[in-house]
Amino acid sequence: MSSDIHPSAQKVLDGDTQIRERYGVVVTRAQDGDCELHLVVDQGWINAAGYTHGSVAYAVMDSACAYASASLQKLAVTVNGNVTYTRGTQEGARLSVRAQLLSQSKRVMTFNTQITDERERLIAHGSFVFQIIGDR
Questions:
Q1: pLDDT digits (tens, 9 = 90+) for 54-103
Q2: I need a surface site. Which of 22, 53, 79, 134 has the fewest CB within 10 A?
Q3: Do 34 and 98 contact (CB within 8 A), yes or no?
Q4: Considering the entire predicted model, what is its pTM?
Q5: Rounded distance, CA 102 to CA 110, Å?
Q6: Nearest by Cα to 102 from 110, 92, 90
Q7: Phi, psi of 29 (to 5 degrees)
Q8: CA 92 to CA 73: how far, in whole Å?
């Protein structure tokens, strides 16, 4: 286990193995309400227009937020996610995803997210609200 991944987040990562494998996600950091992960877009995510389907961005941003919340030892679920797409990507694109805790109350956590490509161009950004349902 990496020292950049909180033990509580590692448990969630272990439980998400099938999801991470399907998206090709590699998590490099999940500590202190912050998560970084990486993936390479494969042919299975390319839509009829020739670009990465928007659901990929939503899914990996949502997962990054879940791992970030787990790094704070919170069991939390998505109640809202808003994604703005700024640039399309195609097969082979190397994407980096970051989720950062913006605020936390007793019941709710809010995260800012962004996806960049290998040239550090912004691909998408968003905000996610998670309801805290317990401690891990």
A1: 999 999 999 999 999 999 999 999 999 999 999 999 999 999 999 999 99
A2: 134
A3: yes
A4: 0.96
A5: 5
A6: 110
A7: -155, 135
A8: 34
Instruction: Please calculate the CA angle 40-4-133 and round it to the nearest 5 degrees.
Output: 90
- Which 8-state DSSP code applies to residue 108? E
Angle at 50 between CA 47 and CA 52, to 5 degrees: 55
What angle (nearest 5°) sits at the alpha carbon of residue 35, between those of residues 85 and 109? 80
DSSP classification of residue 51: S
Structure tokens belonging to residue 36: 């970084």
Distance CA 121, CA 115 (A): 8
Q: Which superfamily does 7-135 belong to? A: Hotdog Thioesterase (3.10.129.10)
Amino acid type, 84:
T
Q: What are the sequence ranges of the domains in the chain?
A: 7-135
CA 37 to chain centroid = 7
Q: List the Cα angle 85/90/92 in 5-degree steps.
A: 125
- Beta bridge partners, 97, equal 37, 115
